[in-house]
Amino acid sequence: QMQLVESGGGLVQSGGSLRLSCTAFGRIFSINAMGWYRQAPGKQRELVAKLTSGGIGNYADSVKGRFTISRDNAKNTVDLQMNSLKPEDTAVYYCKHERGRYGSTYYPRDYWGQGTQVTVSS
């Protein structure tokens, strides 16, 4: 079983920065694919950024150059540094651990955190 807990959301002015952190409670490894998604009111949940099992960061076009995803294996955390925030970044941000086989461990389903609200005022 795995539990993901997000933190770091809040209210920030346009152009400001926030750092989100996702702490994983459970057995994970440095090769596990994890990422950040967001859902704005009335919209579908969308990918923001993710780290593949090979450690490659993939980003939505809308956040490239502004957001950076990183992992701290010692702390079991995956962080999302968000700079130059815009009002359209306002959403609930969710951490996700993707299903799949990582080394000798198989995760049959995705795991999601409870979400953290990010609000960017204009």
Mean pLDDT figure: 93
How many strand segments?
13
Largest β-sheet summary = 7 strands, mixed
Unreliably modeled segments: none
Structural class: mainly beta
Which quaternary structure do these chains form? single chain
What's the gyration radius in Å? 14 Å
Number of helices: 0
Q: How far do the termini sit from each other?
A: 40 Å
- N to C succession of SSEs: EEEEEEEEEEEEE
Strand content: over 45%
- Proportion of residues in helical segments: under 10%
What does this structure look like?
With 122 residues, the protein is mostly beta strands. It is 0% helix and 53% strand. The protein contains no helices and 13 strands. The strands form three sheets. Strands 2, 4, 5, 6, 9, 12 and 13 form a seven-stranded mixed sheet that branches. It has a four-stranded antiparallel sheet with strand order 1-3-8-7, with no helix packed on it. It has a two-stranded antiparallel sheet with strand order 10-11. It is elongated, with a radius of gyration of 14 Å.
Question: How does the SSE layout of this entry go?
Answer:
Layout: E1 3-7, E2 10-13, E3 18-25, E4 34-39, E5 46-51, E6 57-59, E7 67-72, E8 77-82, E9 91-97, E10 100-102, E11 105-107, E12 111-112, E13 116-121
Parallel strand pairs: 2-13
Antiparallel strand pairs: 1-3, 3-8, 4-5, 4-9, 5-6, 7-8, 9-12, 9-13, 10-11
Jot down its keywords.
single chain; 122 residues; mainly beta; seven-stranded mixed β-sheet; four-stranded antiparallel β-sheet; 0% helix; 53% strand; elongated
Short structural description:
This protein is mainly beta. Helices cover 0% and strands 53% of the residues.
